[in-house]
Every structure is written in C-alpha cells, then in structure tokens.
Amino acid sequence: MASFKITGGRKLKGELIPQGAKNEALQILCAVLLTKEPVIIHNIPNIRDVNKLMELLEDMGVKRSKMGDGVYKFEADDVSFDYFETQEYKDKAAELRGSVMLLGPMLGRFGRGKAPKPGGDKIGRRPLDTHFIGFQKLGAEFSYDAGDSFYSIDGSKMKGSYIWMEEISVTGTANVLMAAVLTEGTTTIYNAACEPYLQQLCKMLNSMGAKISGVGSNLLTIEGVTELFGCEHTMLPDMIEIGSFIGLAAMTGSEITIKNCRIPELGIIPDTFRKLGIEMEFRGDDIHIPAQSNYKISTLIDGSILTVYDAPWPGFTPDLISIILVTAIQAKGTVLIHQKMFESRLFFTDKLIDMGAQIILCDPHRATVIGLNREYNLRGIRMTSPDIRAGVALLIAALSADGTSIIDNIEQIDRGYQNIDTRLNAIGAEIVRV
Ligand SMILES: CC(=O)N[C@H]1[C@@H](OP(=O)(O)OP(=O)(O)OC[C@H]2O[C@@H](n3ccc(=O)[nH]c3=O)[C@H](O)[C@@H]2O)O[C@H](CO)[C@@H](O)[C@@H]1O
Ligand SMILES: C=C(OP(=O)(O)O)C(=O)O
Where along this sequence does the record place binding of UDP-N-acetyl-alpha-D-glucosamine (predicted)? Predict the structure, then answer.
C-alpha cells in the first residue's frame, strides 16, 4: 500500500491540463469490442482503472498498439471467448467497476457475455439490477452464480424492445445501449442517463455506423444494425478532475489556470463552485481561478442555508460532492451537503473533523459544513483514503493544512488521477510518494 506525504501550506501557481475523462474512457474502451475493424482513441488517461481495462482487452485477444501519448489503436478481430471462463478474467475484471460494461458489447456482437461482480469504490450499495433487467427486456437470459459472484448471459434471442430503465444508471445505460446497437429491431431506452460520458459514447457509436437518436436526452432510440465499423474518437477532458482543481485552488488560496476545459460540456459544475464564493474567469476554453484570500458561501434568495446535492445529469455529479464538501471548509458561511445517491460516501468527514474542520455529519447522506473563513488552518494528520474522490478531497485538505499529512491507500487516488503528485508538484505542491 503506497502513501503520500504532504507538506501543507504551500501556495500553488500555474497551469494544469486535465487528463482524459476516466468514466468516459471505461465506456469507450469497452465499445472497441463492437467491431473487428481498428478503432483509434485519443486522450486516454494513464490511470490504474483504465490501464487495467486495456490489459483485460489485450488478454482477451484485442490487439493494442500505441500511436502516441495517450493514443492507442485497438483491433478486436480475434476475441477469445475461452478467456472469459478463466480465473484470471474473473479476478482481473472484478477489480474495477468499468469491466461490467464489457457485457453489453459481448452480447451485441457475440450473443453471449460473462462477467464477475465488478469492483470500484465501496461507497454504498451499487446495484446492477438495471443492467440485467435491461438485457432481459431485450430477450436475454441471465444467470448468477452467487458462489462465484459470476454473471452469465445468453443473448442469442435478443430483439429490439422498449426499455424503461428502473434507475438512471450511467454504466447501466451504456451497457444496454452497447447491446442494443447490434440487436435487430428498434430499442427505446427511456429514463436513460445522459452524462457527457454517454453522449460521447453515442457519438462514437454513431460514427461506427450505429443508429442512435435522442443523444443527450433521457430517451434514446436505437435502430439495430448488423455490423459496426472502425472509427477515431477523442475523450473529453475529465470534468471531475477539473472540479477537483477548482476546489484545490480555492482551499489553498492559489492562482491556477485549468487549460482546455471544454467549458460548455461542464454543465452546472462551474456555477456550483461559484455558489461557494469561488471566483473564476473563462479565458477562451481555460478556467482561471485567481488567488482568493476569502470566499463566501451564498444563501438562497430567502436567506436560508445553501444545499448542494447530487443528481443524474444535468444535475450536479455525485463524484464532486466530496470535493465541494472539502472546499467549503475554508469558506465563510454554512452549506448543507446532501449526497443522495451513495450511502457511504461521507464517512470520510471524520478525518476532516480530526484535522480541525467544523462539520456535522447529520446522517450517512448529509453533512453540514460551517466554514472556517481561514480564521484558523487545518492541521496535518495521518489518514487513509477510503475511495477515489474522498482520497482527493483529503489530499486537498492536506495541501491546505499546517504541517505534514500522510495519506495511505493512495492506490484509490491512482485509479482515477494521472500522476497527481507530479502534476501538482510542478506548480508548487510538496507531495512525496512513499
Ligand atoms: C465507472 C463509472 O462510470 N462510474 C460512475 C457511474 O457509476 P455507476 O454507473 O455504477 O452508477 P449508477 O449511475 O448506476 O448509480 C449510482 C448510484 O446512484 C443510485 N441512483 C442512481 C440513479 C437514481 O436515479 N437514483 C439512485 O439512487 C444507484 O442505486 C447507485 O447506487 O455513475 C455514478 C453516478 O454518476 C458515478 O458516481 C460513478 O463514478
Ligand atoms: C465512483 C467512482 O468510480 P467507480 O465507479 O469506478 O468506482 C468515481 O469515479 O468517482
């Protein structure tokens, strides 16, 4: 288990370039299985989860060649189905959440699919029912081996159908969509998730020859086609990383410019940080955050306390709730943070309280942050990163704190943030990987 040793209190200054989006990459990489032709993907982040998924693809016979920095060509012309029965596949695929999205393409192209219960953050129950009910509505038959935590699906009799998704699930929508594009007939997915990750996936699939309409809405209509072709796709910058950098700049009182943000794709993320009083300027496609000595949380029009809560897109993404929470610690004022989707994602606040933050954890979903307005600083402590976003929230807290902090289990952070220590050190942070 690796750790970060952080010397807090340094002001950062400079430019940060966001990596390609982790959660988009996981969908897009699964989609390469849908064609035997070459697919070229640009802006692939060099992070643990994505590297593991690329390894898995290679293990199952997908040819991968590096064409440049973050650019790879994939060719799934000879996929080995035997591999899906191996213990190695079960173990490797169980390490990341994104592996579950291999099922949709397998069903669409080969009429059958197998996958273990996926990994990912332990942030509460993470049901997969939406995925399997969606496949069943297409006519697939599914069985679950509880002893082995292994799903097997027979999709040989799939036909386009009307699917009302039980939940607005990001990976669930991607999975059913990828099965439907190569399924005969018309499939309608209502109550679909429409995060930018999914919009990007739809654009990629359409460029491969799929017929998807309603992209960006919660109603997708898919006319099944018999074959998909090669394409070239570029990943969006990671909106969660961009949000994390905005929070980092505010908490550490630093002047940071985040380059090439694709601002129109960020939805309400910038405005949500502005509600905490954080100033930012859009300079072309860059976001400039000036060094701010103070920032004041706004209230609602009637003067009542601001609430920041997560919701499926175009609402505020749950993956930035931990970052908003930590950023509020040094603001002036009070905010109620409501993490509606996941029930175990706010427990890391006990570490922030140990550092000196004024936070009341009301229940597993809600925390009230009473901003310190920089009247005193957090103090460095030793802590463990429980999940990817809490890990980065703790890193931001540690960078703003007096003294030294140690964050253990940084593998969680490495799942989704590319060389975060090196990139932040380049603009003045002091983080040592130990
Ligand atoms: C690899 C990947 O892409 N992971 C993302 C994906 O996970 P993932 O696709 O696994 O998450 P889902 O969108 O399925 O659901 C997230 C959670 O919210 C709950 N839920 C969802 C919709 C709803 O209307 N009501 C509700 O309660 C679900 O039960 C689940 O616990 O989307 C999540 C929600 O944006 C993000 O946090 C994850 O980073
Ligand atoms: C929860 C997350 O990831 P995963 O779904 O891969 O666990 C995340 O990216 O914040």
Answer: 97, 319, 341
For ligand 1, the distance from its centroid to the CA atom of residue 287, given in whole angstroms, is 27
Would the CATH topology of 3-19+237-433 be identical to that of 22-234?
Answer: yes
pTM > 0.90: yes or no: yes
**43-99 residue pLDDT tens:** 999 999 999 999 999 999 999 999 999 999 999 999 988 898 899 999 999 999 999
Give distance in angstroms: CA of 126 to centre of ligand 2. 11
Is the distance from the beta carbon of residue 26 to the nearest atom of ligand 1 less than 6 Å? yes
Residue whose CA is at the smallest distance from ligand 1 atom 31? 126
- What ipTM was assigned to the predicted interfaces of this complex? 0.97
| Inter-residue contact 292 to 279 (CB < 8 Å) | yes
Alpha helix (H) residue ranges in 309-405? 321-328, 349-354, 388-400
Instruction: List residues with catalytic annotation.
Output: 121
- Give the Å distance between the CA of 292 and the centre of ligand 2: 30
**Residue 250: in which H helix or E strand, if any?**
helix 239-252
| Nearest-ligand number for the alpha carbon of 175 | 1
Atom number, ligand 1, closest to the C-alpha of residue 96: 1
CATH topology of domain 22-234: UDP-n-acetylglucosamine1-carboxyvinyl-transferase; Chain (3.65.10)
Please state which CATH class domain 3-19+237-433 belongs to.
alpha beta
Question: In 3-state terms, the chain is what percent helix, strand and coil (to 5)?
Answer: 35, 25, 40
Q: Where are the domains of the chain?
A: 3-19+237-433, 22-234
Check if 342 has its Cβ closer than 6 Å to any atom of ligand 1: yes
d(Cα 332, Cα 181) in Å, to the nearest integer?
Answer: 50
Question: How many of the other CB atoms lie within 10 Å of CB of 290?
Answer: 14
Given a cut of 90, whether residue 120 has pLDDT beyond it is no
The verdict on the CB of residue 343 being under 6 Å from ligand 1 is: no
Amino acid 383: pLDDT = 97
pLDDT digits (tens, 9 = 90+) for 91-103: 999 999 999 999 9
